[in-house]
Amino acid sequence: MGEQSVTRSVSIRRGEALRGAFTPPGDKSITHRAVLFGALAEGETRIVHPNPGEDCEASCAAAAALGARVDRQADSVRVTGTGGALSTAREPIDCGNSGTTMRLLAGIAARIAGPTHLVGDASLSRRPMRRIAEPLEQMGARVRGSGEAVCAPLTVEGGSLAAISHTPRVASAQVATCLLLAGLAARGTTEVVLHGPARDHTERMLPAFGGVLEVRALASGGRRVRVAGGQRLTACALEVAGDASAAAFLLAAAAAVPGAEVTARRVSLNPTRAGLLRVLEAMGAEVAIGSRSEQAGEPVGDVTVRGPRRLHAFDVPAEWAPTLIDEVPAWTVAASAADGVSRVRGAEDLRVKESDRIGALVDGLSACGLEAHAHADGLSVRGGVPSGGDVSTRLDHRIAMAFAALGARSEAAIRLDDVACVRTSFPDFFTVLRGLGAQVDGVAA
Q: I need a labelling partner for 358 at 20 to 30 A (CA). Which of 25, 47, 87, 402 fits?
């Protein structure tokens, strides 16, 4: 899992209209699950094209801390699992900036008799973990954290678990996966009811590891997932699809520049992740998909976005928000180029990501001479011409990549104060952006 050498601050401005093709890094959500499921499984799991960023590196280190053997190679990871016989970690497990690592790991730690200590960086330590703590305690684990929101550092003390039925207040794939992982070792059948279209990577991947679960669609667009306890997972080999969230910034940048044409190769087409493509089409961009196939239960393909002469403003319905929650920062790039005011609703969860993304986006767009307003559950953006400016990334990789992508259509430079955070998900992002035609200063090629 390599990484690109970068300086902390960069500036980006328009060069040629973006053109070309790239292969995004392996999907972060899928990589986390493959590594942690492999740690639980019996035998050696081989993961090809894993995400190379620091977040997934945290999951690899966590798997090793619990007794798995993790061997990293150029574009693969081999995980020799524990067969469910997890070790008690001797030291606190550092989840870095990765909320996915911490939440999924809590479900695994709930299976271990004795305490597991989970820590993270300053950003992760502000993110609420009550949404996993309460149901895990109902199952019989003990979860201790900081304050009413149960923030990290967390201590999870597991043991004998009993199945529950749980409906998260917000449909969350991380919460669901946490409980399903605990449920694999619980007495009875654990049920999670999601009333919205949360990501379904766990349900697609568990059968590859021999896991048996029942998934039933709901009229709300969500689903009911059940898993019986007492199951043992077996190792498998799988290839990780390209990360749709990483590709989103460059595809949105193409949509925002007339005449641009960018192709993301072998990218995930999971319908719970494809909301941004639907929105770009509604705004008038041309979206073409070719070379469709399937990898580890996930649909993949090559996605090409062409920038039209004019983009139209579009209000993203609240019910679409779960399918592009991580892509909202990329959406602002297209919205900033559209005629009129675009708005996204149903995205209040953006307040508790690596940063308050709603606030970060509004402040950054305003710093670049664009009009944007925060709302309780989202934000609105009026299209215009960016004037360049100084933007704080707030140490959030998606904020950094969003304003870098905005810079690709700005005649004056957009200067980002700290882009080291992109290493968490897309280490080669700035090299790819430069290769597609943007002017990037301050990043080693």
A: 25
